[in-house]
Amino acid sequence: MNIVSFSGGKDSTAMLLMMLEKGIQIDRVIFADTTLEFPEMYTWINKIEELIQIPIERIKPKKTWDEHFYGKFTRGKYEGRMRGFPFVIQKCWWNREAKYLLLDKAQGRGNTVFIGIAKDEEKRTKAKQYDKPHLDYRFPLCEWDMTEADCFKFLEEKGLFHPLRHMKRTGCWLCQKQSKSSLLILMREYPDLWTKLKKYEADSPHGFKPNFSLEQFENENL
Question: Is the pLDDT of residue 187 over 90?
């Protein structure tokens, strides 16, 4: 079975459309909804689903972000303490709970999974998450030598302009690993989400970023 792991970003969208153009069989298209996507992402996914006329399966975590965030560590040196934000220097627990574990279960065993990683990020194909004997991972954009710029061009030639093309990251809006430029867009263009983020920072036992607070960032960029 051929499964497309669809993030909704420009790269996976370009891969999906080009696979259809090339006549590559697609049995399932799966989108792992972290529930923290930008509002425009959901509109985009609906648009692509209508365009390709293939159902896009949306999978979601059983527990919400808030349940994890305000929940407590159950083991380790922080046992009993509220989780708050994931530690920046470690792998994100929400990425694990809301994405990788769900995708691994949904993708099953013995299937071929297509991942939209562009040629200029080919080093990401060597990540441990793609080293699973029970799945055959394929990276068509790398095989076709398609860079991120090529993906943008491919989509725009079709009149498809990704609503989040001005963002470096199109995943969770509260991702701690986003750049200052992305944070600035969040602050200026998504005031409701920014207010929410500041509330989470105030509640978390450790900050959103290790080297500055959101209040400092806000004061410096007003």
Answer: yes
Please state the rounded mean pLDDT for residues 22-43: 97
Domains and CATH numbers, the chain: 2-165 (3.40.50.620)
Q: Measuring CA to CA, how many Å separate 203 from each of 51, 68, 131, 153, 160?
A: 42, 13, 37, 42, 40
Instruction: For the sheet with 135-138, list strands across it.
Output: 56-59, 28-32, 2-5, 111-115, 135-138
Cβ atoms of 82 and 170 within 8 Å: the answer is no
- Please tell me the pTM assigned to this model: 0.91
Which among 153, 115, 116 has a CA at the least distance from the CA of 132? 115
Residue 105 has pLDDT above 80, yes or no: yes
Beta bridge partners, 112, equal 2, 136
* pLDDT band per the 50, 70, 90 thresholds, residue 171: confident
Per DSSP, 62 falls in state S
Q: Which of 169, 171, 165 is nearest to 149 (CA)?
A: 165
How many angstroms separate the CA atoms of 199 and 80, rounded?
22
Phi first, then psi: what are they for 157, rounded to 5°? -65, -20
